[in-house]
Fold this protein.
Amino acid sequence: MGHMRFCFLVEEHYRNDGMPLAVVEHLRAVGHRVDVLRPGADLLDLAKLVRSGKHDAWVLKTVSGGPGLGLLESAAAAGLTTVNDARAIRPVRDKAQAAVVAALHGLPMPRTWAAADPAAFAAIGARRYPLVVKPADGSSGRAVHLVERPEQLAELTAPADGGLLIAQPYVRNDGCDLKVYCAGGEFFATLRTSPLHPHHPAVERPVPLPREVAALAAQVGEVFGLDLYGLDVLLGPDGPVVVDVNDFPSFRQVPRAVERVADAVVRLARTGSSWPTPGARHLLTDAAVPGTAAPGTAVTGTAVPGAVVPDARAAR
């Protein structure tokens, strides 16, 4: 098929970041046309930008709460293709909303409380401690606190922007987060030292992806309708637990990440995203046995050789 034209919305926070800009350069190198817009820095003729309809897809790489998401949603409302689907992004950007969606679909996420004032978390029973407290719109491990006892809540401050905080019971683990990345159906895992354990030896390396975590990652994509995404998983005493979901993450340590993400963007621009997700409920209620799912999403890279995770999109 012919070359395409993309509009990348890249906020100032990522103006020098390798992932979105390297993907842009790769797409250009293989013949696609890419316009890069910087919401908050560029002068944008908004009506003309959307009405022109000259882009095959819009792609967003932005911080939580940044101006880019509103522009992406406006483009989607005008009928333009977006990557990820614009309707899928806000529910994961807002961690309180993500916790509600996860609970409704039975995803293994810690019980979550929300409050504007950290003192309100004192009403949570002491048996739930230690708690992890973080901003509902946080990203990149920013302002994440481990609260061992209720009296420590007095050391926390309410968000300056008036937003919500969320609190979750701490999941006992070995001090490392399992970062799982999905690029258009391929799944990869890396191990990274948790921001809650900065004194542990720094670790960041690719690791094999356990089958049950691969299946969980596929479920997260189905429930939220994401195609380029990542999740933070803790291997707790009762199995894997999802503690965060991110749209368009860093894909750090993923082999050939730039090429894989660029290829996924092109495919999604041509075929559309996976939102809405009619297969999610079936996927979550029937235990998935590796090898019995519809063929589709191979766990590749550093994963268990030959493993296949369920993917309702593949059957549609």
In short: Residues 218 and 311 are 6 Å apart (CA to CA). Residues 277-316 have pLDDT under 50 and may be disordered.
